[in-house]
Amino acid sequence: MLVRAEREVTALRMCKHQNIPKVFDFELTPARGYVAIELIDGKNLDELIEERGKPLSNDQIFRIARAVAGALAFCHARGLFHRDIKPANIVIEKGTGRTALLDFGIVKAVNLRNISLAGNRVMGTFCYLAPEQVMNWPVDQRTDIYQLALVIYKMVTALDPPPSTDLDTGTLAFRLGAIPSLNPHAPSTMQNFLNNCLRLNAARRYPTVHDMLDGLDRLEKGLPVEPLTGKRAAPPTPPLPTAGPPPKQESRPVGIQAVRQRVLKKVRDAEAIETEATETEATDSGTAGGAPEPPGVAGPTGATPVPRPPEPVAAPSGSVGRGWLAAVCLALATIVVVVWLVAGR
Question: What is the pLDDT of residue 344?
Fold first, then answer.
């Protein structure tokens, strides 16, 4: 808890923004500790939506989304990513209506080593985790964009997003497609806007918060928001890792199913070698003896050609014969190995 508190205080002291609480003083030691932070007297989004019992108005949605996006843009410009954006961490101040983004405890800095020790552990609230957080991949500002879009989804529908484990393409499309029925007052292109933020592949989302704000501008003005196509230019942060090499296969098969799979593969490989050898020989014969015969015998006019009966294939010779012989030997050796393995069990 002490390390987390130190990260939060360091991050907050770096971010002097109207939508981020101010830090006045702090002392953190194993013996005692305190943080003098600005008090935001108000309710968080979870409480407001629960009290209201229905989606927020469009004016409230745009005002809150802009405020949080502005705070994130300020943080991102300083190499800070929040990574835990959720309704409970967004408070609306009583009286002023000011929006404040709280809980920088798992903030990650890409430029400052002293607060980058949050590491790559899966941290955050599960329903609001981005796919890269679930997969324990590096995060960047597109992670915050994803999470803010889920918050907007809740403001628009008054429903929590589906758990991260259910965030496949079909589930997302179904949830976003239901927005008009859940909130008839929502902008008609809200689905496109959220889909641009909630792509499972981060490279296909809005690349920066400023692009997301442009989309919000178009929504508020009633202008169309087109779906993003192709990959977008990523911000200057480390790219997501690609899939690693396939795991090494065991030298000894485990279970009869594994044996059958290996045998089947080897038999198919042998058949492929034999087929290739036969086709090569047929091609060589056709070239030496002139044009090859037609594949079938023509029937009456308009009738389907009748296939010719298969001709016996001559025994392969030369290099082709050696390939055929190798294939047969491989198949026989495989059968012997299988018999030995099954008998050993």
Answer: 59
